[in-house]
Amino acid sequence: MAASAESYTDVLIVGAGPAGLAVAYWMARCGINARVVDKRDTKILRGHADGLRSRTIELFDSMGIAHRVMQEGDHSAELMYWRPNDKGELKRAGNTGFSSGTASPYKMAMLSQGRVERFILDAIKDSSDLEVERGVVAESLSYDQSPEDHGQKYPITVKLRTLSEEEATPFSHPGISKVPAARDDQQDLIQKRKHPVGTVETVRAKYLIGCDGAHSWTRKQLNIPFEGSNTDHIWGVVDMVPITDFPDIRRTTSLDSRNGHLLIIPREGNVVRLYVPLQEDEVSATFDRSAVTLDTLRNRVKKILSPFSFDFKICHWWTVYQVGRRLAQSVNKGRVYLAGDAVHTHSPKVGLGMNVSFQDGFNLGWKVALAVRGVAHPSILDTYASERHQLAKMLIDFDRRWSAFFLQEEQKQKAVDTSSAPEDNSAAMSSLFRETELFTEGHASFYGKSCLVHKGSTAMAKHLVAGERFLPAIVRNQAGGRPSWTTRLLESDGRFRILILAGDMRLKDQKNRVSSLGEKLTELLMRFTPPKSKLDSIIEVKAIHTAPWLEVELSDFPPAVHQFDEEQGWDYSKVWSDSKCFWEPQCVGNAYEVWGVDKSRGAIVALRPDQYIGWMGEIEDVAGLTQYFERVLQEVRPRSLL
Amino acid sequence: MAASAESYTDVLIVGAGPAGLAVAYWMARCGINARVVDKRDTKILRGHADGLRSRTIELFDSMGIAHRVMQEGDHSAELMYWRPNDKGELKRAGNTGFSSGTASPYKMAMLSQGRVERFILDAIKDSSDLEVERGVVAESLSYDQSPEDHGQKYPITVKLRTLSEEEATPFSHPGISKVPAARDDQQDLIQKRKHPVGTVETVRAKYLIGCDGAHSWTRKQLNIPFEGSNTDHIWGVVDMVPITDFPDIRRTTSLDSRNGHLLIIPREGNVVRLYVPLQEDEVSATFDRSAVTLDTLRNRVKKILSPFSFDFKICHWWTVYQVGRRLAQSVNKGRVYLAGDAVHTHSPKVGLGMNVSFQDGFNLGWKVALAVRGVAHPSILDTYASERHQLAKMLIDFDRRWSAFFLQEEQKQKAVDTSSAPEDNSAAMSSLFRETELFTEGHASFYGKSCLVHKGSTAMAKHLVAGERFLPAIVRNQAGGRPSWTTRLLESDGRFRILILAGDMRLKDQKNRVSSLGEKLTELLMRFTPPKSKLDSIIEVKAIHTAPWLEVELSDFPPAVHQFDEEQGWDYSKVWSDSKCFWEPQCVGNAYEVWGVDKSRGAIVALRPDQYIGWMGEIEDVAGLTQYFERVLQEVRPRSLL
To answer: Tell me, what's the ipTM?
Structure first.
């Protein structure tokens, strides 16, 4: 063992997949002293997750990377169903449009997890020097929970060991083709080690975030039970370049043949992912997973797709898995948190894994960051469990229902006489699809009442729900006229936001209401903003009004939304107009309709740093708004001193 | 002088601005042995050009970088006019919407030249190892034009000298603030030299492309006259972060006050560019340009904008220039070509410079590349002069007209009694704007008849014009359903394209017509494709049909548009459908209407590698199409041998 080192960090993140990188993103944006370690030598380059739902891409927009996903990903608008017809011939049986229950600037995209991680890593680099330390494994954890006082600032002690190249290279199935990495991923292939191989470093941390996957080392250290079981389903998944005359190979397809079910997912470039059931011909209990080769998958697909031809020569990645439907009994012990697959495992076939994991980290990261910085009460961290553990349960339930559907299909087929066609379930599948769409697309998150979510009247914003996402709409910048989706202008930079939905500022009464609100907001902001910081550094106030773009001026709005800075001048980024822009066909001036807000009288909406709605009220309800922030944020200048 | 080296390259590009990088892009995409040198130590980071017109961004789309421009750039939809009212108070006098005469996926974007160069450099890196050699100056040129035979393969000899840091650092005006470079530009700040300082390398080249700016060294070596004159206009331009109560500082604004004309161009982030006239108060002939300081500009703007306040503390860049309206008498001598500012200089105020320069390089690069590769007849290079020299003339004429308009404004104001308001010319300006829009946006290029542009009947595609851009539209991929603008799917990869506008493939007759065309096209492709190359490596055939997406199959189309490859399988990228996609509001199935093509019968359009229309005809007119390619491409397998 090489010489030991010791160091301190506020937040240690173990695992740099979608969950860990989401946490790391917040550390970078909020300027937290943090470290991220991952036992693999390089980031993932191929395979693993690949489905991005629209809410995930909306969040990427708030991080400035959505455009890269949309450029590189594949986009399927329809799910096709195939099944044998009356004569036993495999035929298209219909299709369902993938729509989203509520409007979103983005639709589902299929893109390799490695590329998604590239974009998040670039967003991290854009705002900090935080880098993932690769080839580093956490080996021991001690957590001094007893005297949780101010003297014990770094209660967590973790030993990190630098791995050799051999130890850090993950297992890879034989048969995978050599495919060059993308240009901007090539830097990641160069081995970099902070310490020599074998070095054990002792790290003391205030928070530890375990994003270390289904076999989470962190979870095991905490002795948190991982409940559930492996199902009988054994699947193969293969990313390859197909050679086939099956006509829908580039369409998302659920295919039921007499020889099994095949799920076809077209991907970026000419890659297609196939989910291949393996256990059908064998009795599942005795199925030998390790005996599966790439040819096993190839031959299964050939049989399922028959009489269509099928083969491939280029394989990007493949693996075999047994669906483990498991849920961690809790998501943390004190300041040690779990996120992502460490909390929930399920079938990858619904394309939710990367989304829920990323959103776990996205939910947790800013809370940890604001607690570390002393901006927010540490009690906000309790909402991580209430919000995400519940969602993890829903995910497992959903997976059970969805997988049962696939299973039922297969069992039915096995049960019936092979000379007759399996029953057509595409209508039922389509209906399940519609029913669960808000959940799967991430458009409903079901965050319950908490210090971060005030469930009060919704009369002033009929289509908005506290604890849910702020419904995206296109608005125009008042100062410049540029149209933008709200997902982009509500940047994920670690700040809470007060949105003044200012209504029609041409009306004198309304202007007075907003002006009066503005004065009170300045006082509110001062209570939570450190004396030498800018007044928008903890809570940013933005306004969106309904007057036609050229009929009001920036100066009609209170100073809180066009602050002055000695060097930067006035801030032109905070006032927006819900009006038409002939340049952008989707910018029709319907944002208030989307939100269900009165175009004259407006409303106030408080958003958490992750763009979820924390509080809603009338323009006059500064008392309610203040109460909300008092429960969430540390007061730095008591009201009495202002 | 350090030790001399000698080397050979097919194409030497001098200057790595927008024109040089456009040429370099084609070298990279076409796999040409090329070098690019630039005398500056680093690429431009701030200042210089900043206006991108929609056609330029369409071409960027074909290079895969448009999304980055749209994400980072600023977008103004309206041009605002300000002038004194009857009482002499400076007021808004109206506005013109920046629209584009024909539909484009993109609108004008304002973004620093340095960022635009970053994106082109990244596109170059994505397909080759070609890197700009910085801090290298060309010092002598000899060109052996006499025996233009095959024995003389490298007729051009250039000596390149590696500069010291001092020599390679461009002059920078005092007063510019330290602003950090973007994350992905920081690598460019590191000094890299291929050779030690002072090394003189002798390079022998087949082609030399001088993209070395208004003071072009290359142009001087060729003794090509640069005709025109400096005008009396002396302007300052400053990129700064404004501190002002002028309400339209973030709107593109043409402002006429009694104290002069100000052009305001909002830019990315919080930067605003101002064009400031300097010569008004002084008699121009005696104006001392070198005496201008940043404060001179600051004070001029204060005076013009008065009674509004104005100042700035952060200055990104500034300079002073005297408008030189000049045109090179020719754009080449033999194999030595000029592009960009080396050919034309004019006022930057119309925001065309970077666009015309980039498009010069974009027009020239693929012609040189295909001539070097022996794919095309070298005679296609003559069209560079006929196409771009003519456009340069039009540019100079346009600039004269447009600048006269600004000048006239000012002269009027000086002539009239200062107590009365200057005449309102915003309507006239607006009208000039509309009249010249097709030209300024790059939607009309006026490329005349040549071997590359066949001007025949337009009956089969009423809105398309040979020599003009292929009008952009959104279509859906037949194999996968993904909607895409044609600007993206017609990738700039160095290939000619035959677009089969296949009409309604549900109709038996039409299917027969297309099928018969397909057979003949395969024969055509074989004549121009080297025996061991893929059949789509020189000319790619794509099809766009009008049947609803799910009512035809890929297999209905001829093999030329879904080629088979032993490793890659069938090609799914070549057949597209002009039909609706509920996912994409702009995908309405109107492409054939945009092109003026009959939805049943279709047409054929041949596109040059730069997406300009080379030839159009009926589905049966393979003879005409063949004739077109015979004039352009080298036959590698004569028809008689097929």
So the answer is: 0.93
